[in-house]
Amino acid sequence: MNALDLIATARDLVHSRSGGKPRQSNLLRAESTAYYALFHMLARCCADLLIGGKSSSRNTSAWNQVYRALDHGPAKTACENTNKMASFPAEIQDFANMFITMQAKRHKADYDPTERLYKSQVIIDIDLVEQSIDTFKAADIKNKRAFAAHVLLRPRKF
Question: What pLDDT is stored for residue 53 in this prediction?
Answer without folding.
Answer: 84
